Amino acid sequence: MPRLTISWPSQGVSGKRAANRENTRSSHARTKANPKKLGTSLVMSARRRPDRAAADPCLCSFRSPIASIVPAPFALVQDRFQCEQNPSLNWEGYKPGYKDHATVHPRKPLHAPSRGSILTPEIRFAPFDGPHRMGKDATESPDKGGTMDNLGITRRSFVKATAIAGVSAAAFGLAGCAPTTAGTLAATGGFKPGTYTAASQGKFGPVNIEATFSESALESIVIGEHEETKFISDRALTEIPAAIVEHQSLDIDTITGATLSSMAVLNAAAECVKQAGASDLSGTYEPAAPSSAVENLSGDVVIVGAGASGMVAAVNAARLGAQKVIVLEKSCTIGGNALVSGGYLEYVNAPESIRETMTESYRRELADQLAQAREAMPEESYRRLMADYEAWEASGSDAVFDSRELHALQYVLQGEGTWEEMIALANNVDALDQWLVSSGFQFKELCGIVGYSWPRWASPQEGTCGQGYFMFYQGYIAENDYPIEIYLNTPAHELIMEDGTVVGVEAIGADGTTYQVRGEKGVVLATGGFSGNPDMLREYNTLWPFTESSAIPTTNAFGHTGDGITMGLAAGGTVAAMDVQMPFPFADCQNSTDETTVGDDIDCVIVNKNGERFMNEVLDRFTMTEHIMEQPDEVMFMISDADTCRVNGEVNRYGHNLQRLIDQGQLYRADTIEELGEMIGCGGTALAATIERYNEIARTGEDPDFGRTTFSEESPIENPPFYASPRTWAMHITVGGLVADINDGYKVLDESGAPIPGLRAIGETILTSCGIGVQGEGFAVAQALFGENAAD
């Protein structure tokens, strides 16, 4: 029997939460070579207080500039809700946005960071009904918790906010969502037997259900068509219906990490109850009291976080001989942000069959980079780069040139980090790629992505976004019978230290059970960054015009609130570059995701609400965000045509239905540019003039207006249908984090630069690492712990 064990609490109850209030101080140093000393008196305990129930101060992740795109009631309640959840904000006249900010440069501080922020990660309690096992044929997989989950917004608080704002809950598909009393619903006197259907809005669109009633009970709920993110929504779409039927109650709390999907099922079920002739279900449910149990666990290593880096670390540790690997995960699923990203991983040594053609635009870009190479990298590395380049030239290949040295060089030239850091990243990712491919993993064709136009990025052949990696890992674990135990909805909060050595970690399950988990080889922190923690973003910010009243949207899945960084600081670690906070400039204006995009990220034209082109479309993400913040309402439109839209039939590249996106105001489509201009509000003449000018530039490959150098034969916008995808910015990646020694097994360093015994960290928990490529660090840290040269 496969030894992959995944455990999670059986939710579907009214959860209790406890606030975790932390106050950290740290350096804003850019490099790990010179971290400023941390005053230990300013680092508070990371221990959670289950007895200290408190409402989380939270900022809704939406902001008023989207009002012209989102239906007015939705935009209104978003801002009003934000103010209700944080009394320090003033609703009257409140209109976030950045009309008055100074010009922002990604490398220059705008203002001093705020101090004294409170960090409030959420914890919920629910009965634990034992482990759920996942094997070769398992279908358990993890939707996207999204920004509401990151901020601790529950079904009840969201409905309450709509009432405060004077907006009908029905406007959101929330009719019937709020319970009449806590845990008990009014008796109804029976139902009209039959099967009824209803739909309610989830994260990406309507979730359809079919509910069957007898005269006395709701007998079954079957989930129908939906577009929720697989691997995140799956538990919500199975456990919520089961809980409703079992308890004959709609007073079921949402699954942590899949709030919107959970709400959709509850709302649709409420509508079916009404169709069956009742006002409510009659069941009574009493949630279990939080458990006071303490459970002791031990393994060869404890990994905190089951995202991209953490899962690879677990798999590779088991592959290298670990007898027991324990993984603790805060959310309802494995996968983390990889599930809601494009799933793109650098693939330097990809076969020519999946590489792009080396165009003149790419040749010019490469020539410019090679001219800067000698000054940016060590001489030995420069010689290797030039030898690889000359061999490629001599081969006569028409596929795009790439190498590990070029990979690192491009990051250095873009300001991503030092040569040492970037070549380590390139080497780790290359090793990961080789293992994946040798193990049967398959990639799609390479392309460029937002902010990184060199076409070395590959996504999984199977699944959408980054789901394919975790589908592969699950199968690989089952096939090899690896001894990996994963505890879901079990956030770690405190490292266990003995005589200055980290020996384990304490976590609390959703039912309140305390887990004391020890690792013979210590603990690996892989909890991600803090893009989902507005307070922490403001605390360390020096780049962006955030204020205490600014709403900060995020692309991140639930749980990325800096927990690992907080624990590492409490154990004596230090941080650097915490102010280097990277937004994603192509986020959806309604839900801050990337998955609704229609258009080629690096082969499109971008216009503002006036129909004007305002920047080079292939700049870095920091600079693009700066330009977007200066546009009317901080909104832009990605314009594409039949050649550059990247649609497949009637769905976009992430599988979302085009007509549904159009119906929800997330996409515009027309047969002429003039008609498209009228749709987006700038007028047909204005947009047509912009596209005509852009097409002239694209055909020549010379851009005197904004300096873009990368174009393809498909770049001109000429062939209908034409699309406009409304986009804005959202916080995406935090580059800074704990300082770790990348050349010594990712050991976390203290203020003096010495390693903290027993503690390692990887991924976005540490300085410089980001994106799907952090899987390479998971691969490397397992090698350091369990490889043939591993220390005892």
Automatic annotation (TrEMBL):
Which coenzyme or cofactor does it need? FMN; FAD
One GO cellular component term: membrane
Catalytic activity, EC: 1.3.99.33
Q: Which SMART domains match?
A: FMN_bind
Q: Which SUPFAM superfamilies did the record assign? A: FAD/NAD(P)-binding domain (SSF51905), Succinate dehydrogenase/fumarate reductase flavoprotein, catalytic domain (SSF56425)
Q: Which GO terms describe its biological process?
A: steroid metabolic process
Keyword Flavoprotein found: yes
Give residue ranges for domain FMN-binding: 202-276
Q: Give the catalytic activity.
A: dihydrourocanate + A = urocanate + AH2
Which portions of the chain have biased composition (kind: Basic and acidic residues)? 130-143
Q: GO molecular function of the protein, one example?
A: FMN binding
Question: What InterPro entries does the annotation carry?
Answer: FAD-dep_OxRdtase_2_FAD-bd, FAD-oxidoreductase_2, FAD/NAD-bd_sf, FMN-bd, Succ_DH/fumarate_Rdtase_cat_sf
- Keyword Flavoprotein among UniProt keywords: yes
What keywords are annotated for this sequence in UniProt? Answer: FAD, Flavoprotein, Oxidoreductase
* Disordered: region residues: 1-41, 129-149
Which PANTHER family does the record associate with it?
A: 3-OXOSTEROID 1-DEHYDROGENASE, FUMARATE REDUCTASE
Name of this protein: Urocanate reductase
What is the species listed in this Swiss-Prot or TrEMBL entry? Adlercreutzia caecimuris
Source species taxonomy = Bacteria, Bacillati, Actinomycetota, Coriobacteriia, Eggerthellales
